[in-house]
Amino acid sequence: MDGNLKARIATAAVGLPLLAWLVGWGSPWLFALSFFLLTVAALREYFAMICPGDPWRQRCGILFGSAIALVVILVPVPAAAVWLSVLLIILFASALVPGGSLAERFNRLGWTLLGGLYIGFLVPQLALLFQLKDGRAWVAFVFLVIMAGDTSAYFIGKRFGKRKLAPELSPSKTVEGSIAYVSGSMLIGTLAMAFLPLPVGILEIVLLALIMSILGQIGDLFESLIKRAFTVKDSGELLPGHGGVLDRLDSLIFPVVFATFYLQVMHP
Questions:
Q1: DSSP string, 151-208
Q2: In whole angstroms, what is the distance from residue 245 CA to residue 46 CA?
Q3: I need a labelling partner for 172 at 20 to 30 A (CA). Which of 29, 41, 96, 218 fits?
Q4: What angle do CA 187, 189, 191 make, to 5 degrees?
Q5: What tens digit of pLDDT does each residue of 110-165 get?
Q6: How many C-beta atoms lie closer than 10 Å to residue 167's C-beta?
Q7: Which residues are 239's β-sheet partners?
Q8: Angstrom distances, CA of residue 262 to CA of 115, 119, 136, 137, 259
């Protein structure tokens, strides 16, 4: 067993029981607080990647994204739009402050806006999903589907992977691993019906697992796009064997947003 796999297993042995307890028995405020802190950690990694050696810009970016996350978690929907508008105006106005060429200012503005929305706005959707009817079960379902997909892709891709899936973005990902991701997600998603109180039929569950497995891989590749743009292998080193917090959240972000949207539209 190689060292990286040992580190992955050790981290999972500590993290998975904590996650299971939080989803199954943690209070809504504790769940929201936990993922707010993870959002802040992911923002820290993101801004360390895009503006290394510039702690002032890093702090401003983290503050901007954290403020968006708090709006998502704490402010009711109608008022949240107003607060988000205010935060965007502040960000846009900051581009007027002298410092670098106009092109550099717009470049900084774009990356800061991306970080604030990609991490600060989307990651806290987990707290919104948790608050919905049967939210604990749906959060558990998303985690199981994505973790099963990630694990299947890792082992099958490592053992049988030959055809590169997206070599420019992630050289280690293969078509075989991608197929394993979808298969593992759909299998575990279907089995989850036996112990999760999900108020939907098996065909809907299979379809949801399929869509989430695809979105999970898209989310993973999207973060890889950011890392490749800044020639970074991992977003951080907080989780041995896994990289940073953002490396663990990337494949969850798009499926969680989809699940929250889907349930509010189809099962209000």
A1: HHHHHHHHHH--SEEETTTEEEEEHHHHHHHHHHHHHHHHHGGGTS---S-HHHHHHH
A2: 10
A3: 41
A4: 70
A5: 999 999 999 999 999 999 999 999 999 999 999 999 999 999 999 999 889 889 99
A6: 11
A7: 243
A8: 24, 20, 16, 15, 5
